[in-house]
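Supplementary Methods, section 5.1.

A reviewer requested that the exact input to the structure prediction be made available. We therefore reproduce it here, unchanged from the version used in the analyses.
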Amino acid sequence: MVNLRLVADNAADRATLTTSTVAGDLVAANLQSDIKTDIYRSEGTRASVVMAWPASERIGCVAFPFTNLTSGATMRVRLYAMSGDGAPVLDTGWMRACAPAPFAARNFGILPLAFNAYRWGGVSSWAAGGGAAAMGWFEAVRGRHMIIDLDDTHNPQGYIEAGRLVVGDYWSPQCNADFGAGLQKQDSSAHFRNEAGDLLTQKGTTSNKLTLQLSHLQEDDRMRLARILRDNGKHTPILVSLFPENADPLLEQEYTLYGKASNLAAVTTPYFGTYTFPLEIEGI
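The structure derived from this sequence is encoded token-by-token as follows.
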């Protein structure tokens, strides 16, 4: 099993960003906003996102944490050493952006059809648990020009929506997070009773919180994590995937979170040469 991965430095925010198609005022610049309802929308079900940097960037992950992509969507990432180069230093080829989970034979006829697919949905569904994250992981390489192609031909909405773009290198500790990591579904809905005593609910929004315990950090991992906590603090979001590239894509989907640290606890030293830190990430 691959250890957790964390992207703390989002190179997409330093890029000059354009897209091949745009619907009205829902422009490409919205992909650089941490307000997930500031969305980019394409005209049609195919789009290309083009990024250029003034200096070389090290890239090992491309992710759209909030999208309306279906489980049939595909994505291709190409990275070039320089703008205008003919041959890319990285070409992932077409890959599933958010694949469905394997459907075991024992489930056939019991669970509803498409139960193993993501719960797709546009921006209006994201505050209620809808939407999917599109992710691509690869060996980190350097470049100054990137093209991300998206294709979701059978999307029922007839267009592509995305609320954020995360591009950058990732940190992965030598020793994984402890067993018992918690994924909490937070719901701001509130119950109340009317004059007749009936229990009613004022419906709110939902969000996720991921709680991890890193109990076996080595010296170099402690330094990397300390730098992340110092630079990002509580104010700058990070992308965390507890089960990256897992054989069960739904598991990876559920335990991938783009959010902010809700705690800045102490890094402790339980024994020589090993460090411990509890980490809580609350989805934006």
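The chain has a mean pLDDT of 88. These observations are discussed further in the main text.
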